Amino acid sequence: MTDIIEPAIVKDPNKVEACQEMSKISQELFGIRSFWQTPGIYITEAIKNRPEVKYIGEKYQEDYLQTVIVLTEDPEDLLDIIFTTEHKLYKKFKNLRFDIRVRVVSQDEDISVLKRSTAYLFEKQI
Amino acid sequence: MSKKTVNPSIESFLIADKVIQEKNTNKWSIIGIFDKIYTGSFPCIHSSLSLYIRLSGGWGKYKIKIEFCDDKDRVLGLFEGIEIDVKDKLAFPGFGINTTRLQIPHPGKYWFKLYFNDEFLEQFPIQVALIEKGKK
Q: What is the ipTM of this complex?
């Protein structure tokens, strides 16, 4: 009884949507989302509607989980939301070391280096 | 006034490719049961993993949380929002969830830990390993 998976990097948002569609039957029972919540997912939920958010990704480093947030501006209220959410997550994700890295770039700057994530959580559609 | 709950026992805990509940009959189909995952590299994401859980001896309303932990007891993923109401102590209620995007950082033993109304109930293991070249 084994399951073999290919090295999986979720890069295609449409692919994720397809997975969510497949999971609809059971989740309809509970009205909940299908993906496993991680620190990056909670932060994405908190800030994804802000226009300054360009990209959010998550990657496992050697012994900690890193969330990369790329912003085009860093107003104080947005940073407050990010770090207040982070603070709440320490209790939920007990014993997990995670770190949040915020980078501010210009609107048209190439961020391909910053996008080397295991999981792509959000990318602003242009 | 809230009624007092009785914590259930877990009769079955199955990890599978997919769980489906037929709408007309309420029957569950559990497809592709497994207890080991092989992957070509780490970290990886399991794109579609389903769980089926069958209870017994419970009574009352439960908020269920599932934690995905590694062998150092680090919580790597959370699944929250499942609520069930068991009205018959003699019933064996079951429920299934189809999950996506389970991040797995390294090979080893992992645990699904079940909490009912924030109280730890039971945990179930899963082994994750690297595919040896040429053995796929």
A: 0.83
